[in-house]
Amino acid sequence: MRHILIVGIGAGNPDHMTMQAVNALNQAAVLFVPKKGESKAQLADIRRDIIGRYVTDEKIRVVEFDVPVRETRDRSYDRSVDDWHAAIAEIYESLIETHVGETEKAAFLVWGDPMLYDSTIRIVERVKGGGRVSFDFSVIPGITSLQALTAAHRIPLNLVGKPVEITTGRRLAESVPEKGRTTVIMLDGEQAFLKVEDPEARIYWGAYLGTEQEIVISGRLHDVRDEIARTRAEAGAQHGWIMDIYLMRSGADFDE
Ligand SMILES: C[S@@+](CC[C@H](N)C(=O)[O-])C[C@H]1O[C@@H](n2cnc3c(N)ncnc32)[C@H](O)[C@@H]1O
């Protein structure tokens, strides 16, 4: 039976690759590399760099494919994501059918770790459930952008014995951290941190983590938020794309 490996490749630094991920890529007959348009060409380059460095067998085939852009017009957010997943599922199905022999393994290279704000696992499940192409699959973990963020700032993720929430910029308003709690924000196109009023909150922000352009800023939110907004806008304009993640909390270890 065909076997699909969903491989976490880390969040931007080729050194994030684990031995398990390297071994998985080298077991595959085909590597599927997503491309997300010109503005994010650097991300495809990082994936190519990883293959160049770690894949030793020249017979392993590399197939690049374009990821469609999510349509948002005239539909709810959930509908928009579901339609998008359906479109990607069709592409995956065709990739597997066309490029993977009946007993071969193939790998999808997934940014960071496949469990964190990534839909490769659920889309592969969808294709498998569709039943038109039969295969089994496994997931290989990777270093996430969240780990890259906490390492860059040299901080633990949680305060001692306290909870953590991970959310998106769109939903930050529902999860502004109460004292002692930590909130991590990903996929924030709207700089949601600018709307947080807590005077005690601290922010740990990072962009392009693991890459040569890495930028990190931390401090009291009200002291550094304008600097982050300015830096973010300038870097985005300079590079043509930006990926950033941040952690906010108020309080300290052992506060009750
Ligand atoms: C679709 S999610 C993918 C997350 C990925 N699966 C992970 O494990 O980190 C993309 C979001 O992850 C964050 N991200 C991923 N890589 C990053 C990096 N190198 N630097 C900063 N943020 C990053 C950003 O919040 C970005 O909007």
TrEMBL record:
Task: Set out the biological process GO terms recorded for this chain's protein.
Answer: methylation
UniProt xrefs under InterPro entries? 4pyrrol_Mease (IPR000878), 4pyrrol_Methylase_sf (IPR035996), 4pyrrole_Mease_sub1 (IPR014777), 4pyrrole_Mease_sub2 (IPR014776), CobF (IPR012797)
User: Per its UniProt record, what SUPFAM superfamilies does this chain match?
Assistant: Tetrapyrrole methylase (SSF53790)
Instruction: Look up the record and name the pathway of this protein.
Output: Cofactor biosynthesis; adenosylcobalamin biosynthesis
- Per the UniProt record, one Pfam family is TP_methylase
**Protein name per the record:** Precorrin-6A synthase [deacetylating]
Tell me the GO molecular function terms.
Answer: precorrin-6A synthase (deacetylating) activity
Q: Where is each Tetrapyrrole methylase domain found?
A: 4-223
Question: What does the record give as EC number?
Answer: 2.1.1.152
User: Which top EC class applies here?
Assistant: transferase
- Which of UniProt's keywords are assigned here? Cobalamin biosynthesis, Methyltransferase, S-adenosyl-L-methionine, Transferase
Gene3D superfamilies (UniProt xref): Cobalt-precorrin-4 Transmethylase, Domain 1, Methyltransferase, Cobalt-precorrin-4 Transmethylase, Domain 2
Substrates-to-products reaction catalysed: precorrin-5 + S-adenosyl-L-methionine + H2O = precorrin-6A + acetate + S-adenosyl-L-homocysteine + 2 H(+)
> DNA repair among the record's keywords?
no
